[in-house]
């Protein structure tokens, strides 16, 4: 069958799509930041906490890493209202993504924490650092230096995961592509265009994270 | 409130619904497994293209690099939609299930190619030099030296990726494939509590995914990546 591609009809929608891309970025950055906080706290809790606490952390990680993010958000968005807890689509997606990120990042940061040697903490103590200082000056830089490549990887996967928000009616990049599709009916052009936009976004994120990792934590991150 | 929901639980499992859920679970597994198998076949070809050093294959090498870099950066949902609407617009009459299979294959090819490339690259250069000294052909080097040393490094991440993909195929529900998530949506329209239905679906996913994940972890420890002096970055 003959079908002519008309990308020209889409160019006028590009600013609209890029606006959606910014919302995608907002989602992924917020969820990533929340995930880092949860991940760091739980990684420490799992290593330093008692047997009960580390069991609970393990249960959380295992549950969230073995179930689909989409269905988790279904439970939050469609399920929780049955108990009288109602979220906006954006909030539901953000909560689901943050909890998910927290589980994956707990594992990544735990591996990073495991690479901090006892001696380094002893050295920090000898220098007269209190616990908070040794956390800030010894543990955190070390963990991030070691974990930069998997963290970068995880951030890319999360950026791709934001496209799920469209299912719940959030108008991020994929959501806006649905809107443009329903007005222009140029499906192939629209969805290949946003595929290209995702490639550009994640590539920029990879480069940015490599630069940050290189100059802030002295980590080696491969870009290509 | 919670009580009313829990009371419904046994009512979900009529024989009809159990059959539907079982079929849906099999579909979920099938999508992931077939996608990964196709990914292994084409991923192997792509990784060999990326590792080749001949001038003749340079265009192929560039194509392989672009393919891997692009398809690892496109959301699964978007790939699904491109193929779904693409098939519609171009007048191919293919079922959503086939569309999903194509999408999973295309994406897993990119990921698996990257895993295999890293595994083959982790084989020590001295081994390859030794093969060269022994006058092995490139093909012999690959089959007799490189591959036997690389496969224990390759298998666990590929398996891990297969488990990761079980969760990704949940998105196939968006184009109407009857897999677990879609089965949940169908049950949801039958008047059960949404919380109950989707929690049940979550548990079913867990029951499929967790044993496989444990098997993957066992595989990794059994194959003992520690035997290899050069570890490689986990690529998923």
First-last Cα distance of chain A: 38 Å
For the secondary structure, the number of strands of chain A is: 0
**Main β-sheet of chain B: number of strands, strand sense, barrel status?**
none
Q: Whole-Å distance between the termini of chain B? A: 41 Å
Roughly how much helix do the residues of chain B carry, as a percent range? Answer: over 70%
Estimate the mean pLDDT confidence of chain B: 89
In a nutshell, what does this entry contain?
Chain A has 224 residues and is mainly α.
Account of the protein in words:
The complex is a heterodimer of chains A (224) and B (236). Helix content of chain A is 75%, strand content 0%. Chain A is built from 8 helices and no strands. In chain A, helix 1 crosses helix 8 and helix 4 packs across helix 6. Chain A is globular. In chain B, helix 2 (15-51) packs antiparallel against helix 3. Chain B is mainly α and 236 residues long. Chain B has helices spanning 2-12, 15-51, 58-71, 76-90, 96-121, 125-133, 138-168, 180-189, 194-223. Classes of the chains: A mainly alpha (224), B mainly alpha (236). Chains A and B meet through helix 2, helix 3, helix 6, helix 7 and helix 8 of A and helix 3, helix 4, helix 7, helix 8 and helix 9 of B.
């Amino acid at each position: 069958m003959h079908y002519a591609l008309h990308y020209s009809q889409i160019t006028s929608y590009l600013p609209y799509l890029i606006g959606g891309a910014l919302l995608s970025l907002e989602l992924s950055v917020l969820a990533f930041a929340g995930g880092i906080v949860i991940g760091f706290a739980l990684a420490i809790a799992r290593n330093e906490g008692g047997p009960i606490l580390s069991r609970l952390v393990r249960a959380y990680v295992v549950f969230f890493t073995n179930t689909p993010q989409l269905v988790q958000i279904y439970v939050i968005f469609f399920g929780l209202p049955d108990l009288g807890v109602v979220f906006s689509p954006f909030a539901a997606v953000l909560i689901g993504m943050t909890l998910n990120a927290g589980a994956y990042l707990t594992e990544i940061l735990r591996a990073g924490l495991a690479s901090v040697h006892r001696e380094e903490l002893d050295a920090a103590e000898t220098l007269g650092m209190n616990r908070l200082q040794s956390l800030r000056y010894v543990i955190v830089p070390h963990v991030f230096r070691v974990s930069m490549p998997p963290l970068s990887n995880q951030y890319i996967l999360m950026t791709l995961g934001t496209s799920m928000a469209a299912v719940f009616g959030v108008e991020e990049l994929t959501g806006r592509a649905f809107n443009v599709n329903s007005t222009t009916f140029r499906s192939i052009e629209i969805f290949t265009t946003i595929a290209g936009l995702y490639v550009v976004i994640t590539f920029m994120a990879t480069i940015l994270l490599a630069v940050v990792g290189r100059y802030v934590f002295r980590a080696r991150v491969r870009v290509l | 409130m919670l009580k009313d929901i829990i009371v419904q639980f046994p009512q979900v499992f009529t024989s009809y619904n159990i059959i539907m859920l079982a079929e849906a679970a099999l579909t979920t597994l099938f999508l992931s497994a077939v996608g990964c198998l196709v990914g292994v076949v084409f991923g192997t070809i792509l990784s060999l293209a990326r590792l080749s050093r001949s001038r003749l294959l340079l265009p192929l090498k560039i194509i392989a690099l672009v393919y891997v870099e692009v398809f690892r950066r496109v959301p699964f949902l978007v790939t699904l939609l491109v193929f779904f609407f693409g098939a519609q617009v171009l007048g191919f009459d293919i079922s959503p299930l086939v569309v999903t299979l194509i999408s999973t294959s295309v994406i897993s090819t990119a990921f698996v190619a990257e895993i295999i490339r890293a595994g083959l690259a982790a084989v020590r250069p001295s081994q390859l030099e030794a093969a060269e000294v022994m006058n092995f052909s490139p093909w012999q080097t690959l089959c007799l030296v490189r591959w036997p040393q690389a496969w224990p490094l390759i298998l666990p991440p590929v398996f891990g990726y297969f488990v990761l993909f079980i969760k990704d195929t949940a998105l196939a529900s968006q184009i109407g494939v009857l897999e677990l998530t879609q089965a949940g949506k169908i049950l949801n329209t039958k008047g059960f509590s949404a919380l109950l239905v989707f929690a049940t679906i979550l548990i079913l996913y867990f029951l499929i995914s967790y044993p496989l994940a444990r098997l993957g972890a066992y595989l990794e420890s059994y194959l003992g990546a520690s035997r290899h002096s050069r570890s490689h970055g986990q690529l998923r």
